[in-house]
From TrEMBL:
Residues 1-24 form the signal peptide. It comes from Magnetospirillum fulvum MGU-K5. Residues 46-71 have a biased composition (Low complexity). CDD domains: VirB9_CagX_TrbG. This is ComB2 protein.
């Protein structure tokens, strides 16, 4: 870029003046400079000389003053000139600044993919415990048929809560080391009590980013249909099993979908692998296209009814079950079924063809 010499000199002078100390810009009377008389001297007389020095002069005539050479201004560096041009046009250099940092939670380094996601079953008389963390938000997901109408938060200063959807609530703590409670009310009249605790970025625990409550507030209605039974063929090896299953009737008050029973579809007599407590092991396990049949025979007398679960996405889901004669019927053909009775359990894994 070509710059006129006069503009460059003027800019240099402006920069030099701005860099000169204030004291140098203030005129100061020299101590060695004599005063100049206001009128010409009278012939034959010596003109009085007044010195600006505070000390008395020993000579009636002041000494001649030496000539002081003028100092030319220093040349303006090209870098200073270019910087002045850039700044005049608003181009200022960037600043390299480092943030505070040091607040990454190491607990996430080796966490599993499912860590931070907490799923629990719907419970009418339970308090749901939630671990939150500063600088992170947690989403509470109620059952899909729930509709939030109101919320009550114990500490409105330490926690912020917002309803995000009909069955979702977002929670964010303001700091760590706090706890409070949250009650969520739904249209059906249900109350979901939560205990909230906030931890810091240096916590050894991974926080709950999503808390999901599984189940439904109201079970789906199932319309029963008339049963159709296919009679067993003479000499069929499944005849003994058909004896208890030919006319399945649900317990009174149960609304269970009735499906046609076909003995010809029974299979898997030797395709199940069992492990767990011997007290829960049956005589034989088999299945058809709809249900899994667990026959206990005489062992069923005096035995407490177990609860059946199936594993879906790594979570145990409660499944409907019923009893017909000495056969425990699980309304699922999931490859892995778990029976639970107190602290006892029995796993049944199907290895045959679907």
């Amino acid at each position: 870029m070509t710059v006129h010499p006069a503009y460059r000199s003027a800019l240099a002078a402006a920069l030099l003046l701005s860099a000169t100390p204030t004291l140098a810009q203030t005129p100061v009377k020299s101590l060695a400079q004599p005063s100049v008389p206001m009128s010409p001297p009278v012939p034959g007389k010596t003109a009085p000389v007044t010195s600006a020095s505070p000390y008395p002069s020993s000579s009636p005539v002041s000494a001649p003053q030496p000539q002081i050479a003028s100092i030319p201004p220093a040349p303006l560096p090209d870098s200073a000139y270019q910087q002045a041009v850039d700044q005049a046009e608003g181009r200022f250099p960037e600043m390299d600044r480092v943030g505070a940092g040091g607040q990454i939670q190491n607990a996430w380094n080796d966490s599993e993919p499912r860590h931070g996601i907490y799923a629990t079953r719907l419970c009418e008389d339970c308090v749901y415990k939630v671990r939150t963390r500063e600088f992170m938000s947690t989403t509470l997901v109620l059952p899909e048929d729930a509709e939030i109408t109101q919320i009550d938060l114990g500490d409105a200063t330490g926690f912020k809560v917002q309803v995000r959807a009909a069955n979702m609530v977002a929670v964010r703590p303001a700091a760590y080391g706090l706890d409070t409670n949250l009650n969520v009310y739904t249209k059906s009249g249900a109350v979901y009590p939560f205990y909230l605790r906030s931890e810091g970025f240096n916590s050894v625990h991974v926080p709950d980013l999503v808390v999901r409550i599984l189940g439904r507030e109201r079970p789906e209605e199932i319309t029963p249909v008339a049963p159709s039974v296919v009679p067993a063929k003479p000499g069929d090896p499944a005849g003994k099993a058909v004896h208890d299953l030919a006319n399945p009737k649900p317990a009174e008050g149960d609304f269970v979908r009735t499906i046609a029973f076909d003995p010809a579809k029974l299979r898997g007599w030797k395709d199940y692998r069992l492990w767990g407590d011997d007290d829960l092991k049956p005589e034989v396990v088999y299945r058809d296209d709809v249900f899994t049949y667990i026959r206990y025979g005489d062992k069923w007398d005096g035995m407490e009814l177990s609860t059946a679960y199936v594993t879906i996405d790594g979570i145990d889901e409660l499944v409907n079950s019923r009893v017909q004669g000495s056969t425990f019927i699980v309304e699922s053909v999931n490859p892995l079924i778990t029976l639970k009775n107190g602290k006892k359990f029995l796993c049944l894994q199907y290895g045959g063809k679907s």
